[in-house]
Amino acid sequence: MRLLVCALLTSFQLLAAEAPRPGGEVDLAPFGHARVWDGNPGIEWDEPREIRRVEVDFTDAQHVPAEGALSVEDWVSSWPPVPSGGWTKTDTPWQGEWHRVVAQRQVSGSRVLFRFQTLSAAENPNAKNTPGFTPSFRKTLKIRLRFSGERTGYSGLGAYGNSRWNIREINVQSGCEGKSRVQLSTTAYNGVILSAAPVETNPAGLKLKVLYTEHDPGSDNRTILTIRDAEYAFGVSVDDVIEHKAVYVKPFGIFLGDVALNEDWAAYQASGTMRPGEDIFSRTSRHPEQSLNNAMGEIPRLALSPRSSHPHHPFRYIPLGFTAAKSTASTTTGTSSSARTARRP
């Protein structure tokens, strides 16, 4: 199996003078897109990122702007959102406005650091949506620098949150379970593939050395490996490989295993994790077609507050979904029927 390897770093390149290393802070700027808004440079990400500090580099100390001549702005869309059950607004790059971030400025030679201070409604009106929530980070899709004068000598910026770099080796094998061996290409999003070396396994494979992110729960900084061949492409989170020891994509016969746990295709088979015929698709195909009687027998009665008209409430609520509609509906069944709908914003 041949595997072509490259690292997806969008518009930026990681600086050779400050190469990433295990335990080091992750600069999120390389994983965004370089933008200029109204003459002010910045970064736009495909997903919201939590930023705590911005570093701005100049060619020399003489070009560092005076106090007040340079600030950082973030794009305020819906964060922090109004809690609304299962439907919560997400940030959009088209609806929102720029707000100046309250930050502590520190100058170190030709570099200016902005450490974000706690969030307040004076800076971001959305802060009132979550009383008592005063983080020192900003979750945003975009940040930019605001120069009050000329920006001569500006050379670049970095954006940092809580994520740290680490290294993991991952086995990638093609041709499992008799599937055809194919030529694959692999890219890393929010990460870097440092090297790839052949390994003598059955089927043959490669050992990838991946620089990946360790991050807060729910963070969009997670590292994703994208595997492609001529006919398909899919993504695998490095977090999933570490948590589950391995990820097997059965339709394509592609296996990814954690080298730290000596996990390859042979070890995965011997572990008993994969039980032939017991995967979700196989079990579903053996199940009879669903019927109303079966559904009513399998849905338990809900412990809801009794209503005056039905004090014992012997009903079951059945959720109904409508394709491409932001609305929900439910119906109750029993001696009589009723329905109600609720539209979500």
Description:
This protein folds into 3 domains: 24-162, Jelly Rolls (Sandwich), CATH 2.60.120; 164-284, no CATH class; 292-343, no CATH class. It has helices at 238-244, 265-270, 280-286, 292-298; strands at 3-5, 25-27, 33-37, 40-51, 53-58, 70-76, 97-100, 103-108, 111-116, 138-147, 154-174, 184-189, 192-199, 205-214, 224-228, 233-237, 246-249, 254-258, 317-320, 327-332, 338-343. 25% of the residues are buried. Strands 2, 5, 8, 9, 11, 13, 14, 17 and 18 form a 9-stranded antiparallel beta sheet that branches. It has a 5-stranded antiparallel beta sheet with strand order 3-4-10-6-7, with no helix packed on it. Strands 1-12-15-16 form a 4-stranded mixed beta sheet. Helix content is 8%, strand content 41%. The chain is mostly beta strands.
Q: Report the strand count.
A: 21
What is the helix/strand order?
EEEEEEEEEEEEEEEEHEEHHHEEE
Q: Mean pLDDT, as a whole number?
A: 85
Give helix % range.
under 10%
How far apart lie the N and C ends? Answer: 50 Å
The helix tally amounts to: 4
**Uncertain segments:** 1-17, 334-345
Evaluate the radius of gyration: 26 Å
Tell me the structural class: mainly beta
CATH topology of the largest domain: Jelly Rolls
The profile of the biggest β sheet is: 9 strands, antiparallel
- The outline comes out as flat
How many domains? The number is 3
Strand content: 35-45%
Q: CATH first level of the largest domain: which class?
A: Mainly Beta
CATH A-level architecture of the largest domain: Sandwich
